[in-house]
Amino acid sequence: MKKIVSDDHKAIVKFLKLLDDHLELQNIPFDTSSLDISVGSTPSVFSHEKLDVPNKVELHPGNYVFYDRQQQYTGVCESEHSIAGLVLSRVIGHYPDSNRNAIMIDAGATALTKETTPQGDMASVYGRPRA
Fold first, then answer.
1. I need a labelling partner for 5 at 20 to 30 A (CA). Which of 27, 59, 86, 92 fits?
2. pTM higher than 0.70, yes or no?
3. Residue 27: exposed, middle, or buried by beta-carbon count in 10 A (0-12, 13-18, 19+)?
4. pLDDT tens-digit profile of 11-61?
């Protein structure tokens, strides 16, 4: 988790540097140190390190209260039993061939997510980690 927190800190500093550079190239006089920066990062909820930037920075815990596959993968929560948000859906198709080994459900991408996770795919079947 410390690496994730460190990466978040580096991304904030990089963003501020890019913003400063862009404003300077555009001849826009603006002091970015007056900006309040707010970043959702659940792993940072356990970090109490001070950032070395002139800005007021809020690292808030994202969707920490619900947990999700990302938090399980990074070790924030211990198991899928800790994940509070679930989507209940019907299975409407099954493709057991070796190329796909997939099921089709009647929940759309918005009900689940459109983003993949480091462990792959977008969702999992509760109680069946390899499904």
1. 86
2. no
3. exposed
4. 888 998 999 999 999 999 998 988 888 877 776 666 666 767 778 877 777
